Amino acid sequence: MFKKTFIPFILILSLSVYGQKKELKAVVKLVESQDYDTALNQLLSLQPVVQDSELKYQAQYQFLAGKIYGGQKDFKASFAAFDSARQLETENGSSKHTVEIDKLMNDLSVEAINKAIQENQNENFTEAADLLILVYNIDKEKNLDYLYYAASSAVNGGDYDRALGYYQELRDLDYTGSVEKFYATENETGEEVELSAENYVLFKKLKEYSNFRTEMTESKLPEIIKNIALIYVQQKRNDLAIGAIKDARAVNPLDVGLILTEANLYIQLGDKQKFADLMKEAIEKDPNNHILYFNLGVITAEQGDRAKARSYYESAIELDPSYAASYLNLAALILDGEPEMVDKMNSLGNSRADNIKYEQLQKQREGLFLEAVPVLENLTEIDPSNVEALTTLKNIFGTIGDAANFKKMKEKLEALGQ
């Protein structure tokens, strides 16, 4: 009796295994023909049988699921299935699909990243962050950059709680995002070109290149700390914001980027004096940074110290003569007193004393105009299409009666469609 029941059981078991093989092969053919919808339906129908079968069949099931979901561009489901297949093969002591899984996941990661870029461009920031986090989770050590990009997408989408979590993780991992760049000079053209790490080594053997150098890109840590702090400010958690920056500065006291981050925080909080103090500290550590002088000029002008603001703008121009904003702000600072003069002129009467005062004010006003002209002209030399500078020059020349230059500025504006 025992034998009569045992033999059919073996036969049934063999038929079941044979059926699984046959059905899975049918799914393979559907996947190869890219009929992913039919393949998925057929695969899902096998789930009750496969889930209790040998590990190799479970692994193949998940492998096929990964390929199907990948074909449907369901990145989350595909990555999960491939990861499950890899774990099952490891548990079974096999590596049948490992190489192909690695390649497919790498290819899908590239697709997911490109899709995230599109979503960001279309301002679908939540979807972009979701995709970038998927890529990060595939290999957290290798793909750490994508956690940073996911945080940026979350910020752009206004999901500050999510962004804060990502930035805190980046901070705790001491992420800098800094990479080594490789450069060499082409002897024929004299131009410096960026090279890959491989070509940097190879080109050193060529006589066509010289002046090889490397440099590390700027650390993203100050920006990360700044964003943590600014999110805290957004959430009205100012003490945490200040604490976040002070902790970072304690670790990196010479990091000018962190000083600027703290300065930006205080300007967000409306503490302009603390901002100015920190900017001065930054200048002491980085005296050739024109942006520092420019920002100090802005704050000092707002505080009413026009003479000091002017010196800061002039220092910014001296350090970087091509920075247009310094010229524009300096010209605006020079002309800042002009409206007040006009008000005084309009308030005067027709008495002899008032007429004398009117002429004095008119000369002072023209003096301001003539003082601003060379600043604005320098600006138009480095930025010929700067409409604001050209318009201001046109108005000045019109006011002081310089018809030739008025016409010249008018023609330039018309050429720009103004």
Task: Show the helix and strand layout.
Blueprint: H1 2-32, H2 36-45, H3 47-50, H4 55-71, H5 75-91, H6 98-121, H7 125-138, H8 144-156, H9 160-172, E1 180-186, E2 192-195, H10 197-203, E3 209-216, H11 221-234, H12 238-251, H13 256-268, H14 272-285, H15 290-302, H16 306-319, H17 324-334, H18 338-347, H19 352-382, H20 387-400, H21 403-415
Antiparallel strand pairs: 1-2, 1-3
Helix pairs in contact: 1-2, 1-4, 2-4, 4-5, 5-6, 6-7, 7-8, 8-9, 9-11, 11-12, 11-13, 12-13, 13-14, 14-15, 15-16, 15-17, 16-17, 17-19, 18-19, 19-20, 20-21
Give structural attributes.
Serine Threonine Protein Phosphatase 5, Tetratricopeptide repeat, three-stranded antiparallel β-sheet, 418 residues, 21 helices, mainly alpha, 74% helix
The H/E string reads: HHHHHHHHHEEHEHHHHHHHHHHH
Number of β-strand runs: 3
SS class:
mainly alpha
Q: Over all CA atoms, what is the radius of gyration?
A: 34 Å
Q: How would you summarize this macromolecular structure in one to three sentences?
A:
By secondary structure, the chain is mainly alpha-helical.
